[in-house]
């Protein structure tokens, strides 16, 4: 961690002992290792894990968005870009998964409402950019 980052971290209420350099600092290459949440004993463990999980989550969101773009290519009409039945289906499946992994279902519902709405807007943009205007 750089001196600048240390200063930022201290500004967020961390003590100097939270900021010991971490042998498992994520790098561009190679796997990142850190203890399970139950075994974590330092804020470096916690933040190393969260940074790694966020990289995986955002990477999966990128893959998800490529399928939204595929939907824009496949759907025959602009009028079917937003399919409310499928929006409700996606959100209800994600709430069921959240319950299984002990994540608050109402939080997954709010996160997915934003994600799916943003995906639909992205799909509309992509649909419009790749089609002639419909009569
Ligand atoms: C990808 C689709 O298009 C939209 C995007 C959705 C999503 O982000 O999961 C769900 C429903 C659609 O309105 C689809 O219809 O499946």
TrEMBL record:
State one molecular function term (GO): chorismate mutase activity
Gene3D superfamilies, sorted: Chorismate mutase
Q: Which domain of life is it from?
A: Eukaryota
GO BP terms: chorismate metabolic process; salicylic acid biosynthetic process
Q: Does the keyword Isomerase apply?
A: yes
| Keywords assigned | Isomerase
Q: Where is the composition biased (Polar residues)?
A: 14-27
Sequence ranges assigned to domain Chorismate mutase in this UniProt record: 37-127
- Mind telling me what this protein is named? Chorismate mutase
Q: Which organism is it from?
A: Sphaerosporella brunnea
